[in-house]
Design goal:
alpha/beta, Ribosomal Protein L13p, Chain: A, four-stranded parallel beta sheet, two-stranded antiparallel ribbon, 5 helices, 6 strands, about 30% helix, about 15% strand
């Protein structure tokens, strides 16, 4: 009988990686970020175990989308009151809060439970080229 491998807390090594979103497609970038957060690019990947890396995204305001998505894609918020639905287009969201666009795309690709919410805490997104995580010595994401 073969036993299932489950990594211990001491076996897990997490790195900090930095990704430049300048000129990258939103969906393809979000897929790479979700895989890195989950740890699927590591040989020690185990479902349900946090083996992924910490991810820093810079230049979030310079992402690209294809087609007419800038005007056709909307983000909805509901306050819970009658008539309390708010609708913001992707173009407007990129202008006001570009970090939220990438965060929302990655959130949709993570598990919808406590594990996914925990992984989303390992993602840091910044609109410009500067980030305050130089002490962690992040390396560029390969691939």
């Amino acid at each position: 009988m073969q036993k299932t491998y489950f990594p211990k807390q001491g076996d897990i090594t997490r790195k900090w990686v930095v990704v430049d979103a300048d000129g990258q497609n939103l969906g393809r970038l979000a897929t790479r970020l979700a895989c890195t957060l989950l740890g699927k690019d590591k040989p020690t990947f185990t479902p349900g175990a946090e083996t992924g890396d910490f991810v820093i995204v810079i230049n979030a305001e310079k992402i690209t989308v294809t087609g007419k998505r800038l005007d056709d894609k909307f983000y909805y918020r509901v306050s819970g009151y009658p008539g309390g639905i708010r609708k913001v287009s992707l173009r407007e969201q990129l202008r006001k809060h570009p970090e939220r666009v990438i965060t929302a795309a990655v959130r949709g690709m993570l598990p919808k439970n406590r594990y996914g919410r925990s992984l989303l805490g390992h993602l840091r997104v910044y609109a410009g080229a500067e980030h305050p995580h130089s002490a962690q010595m992040p390396k560029p994401l390969k691939g």
